[in-house]
Amino acid sequence: MYVKIRGNMKYPYVLMDEESRFWIAKQVSDTKYTEDVRPLLVKGKQTYQMQNANKDGF
C-alpha cells in the first residue's frame, strides 16, 4: 500500500500489538525495501521490551 503525500509516493508501515491493537511503532518511507523498515522494527522491539519490563515490575 502507498499514499501520496505532497505529490510524492510514500509507504506507511505500522507495527501493531496483536492482542490490544495498540500501535507500537509507525513509519513512513520513500521505498518498500528492507533498509527502510529496519528502524521501525528496532523501535518496535525496544517498545516491546519496555512494556514487558514494566509488567515484571522492573
User: Which structural class best describes the helix and strand composition?
Assistant: alpha+beta
Spatial order of the strands in the main sheet? 1-2-3
Could you state the order of secondary-structure elements as H and E? EEEH
- Sheet with the most strands, sense and barrel status: 3 strands, antiparallel
In helices, the fraction of residues equals: 25-40%
Strand content: 25-35%
Count of helices?
Answer: 1
Backbone CA Rg: 14 Å
The average pLDDT value, as a whole number, equals: 83
Number of strands: 3
The end-to-end span amounts to: 39 Å
| Tally of structural domains | 1
Provide the low-confidence segments as ranges: none
Mass-distribution shape: elongated
Question: Your description of this structure?
Answer:
This protein is an alpha+beta fold and 58 residues long. The protein is built from one helix and three strands; from the N terminus they run βββα. Strands 1-2-3 form a three-stranded antiparallel β-sheet. The radius of gyration is 14 Å and the shape is elongated.
Give me a quick take on this structure:
The protein is α+β, with helices and mostly antiparallel strands.
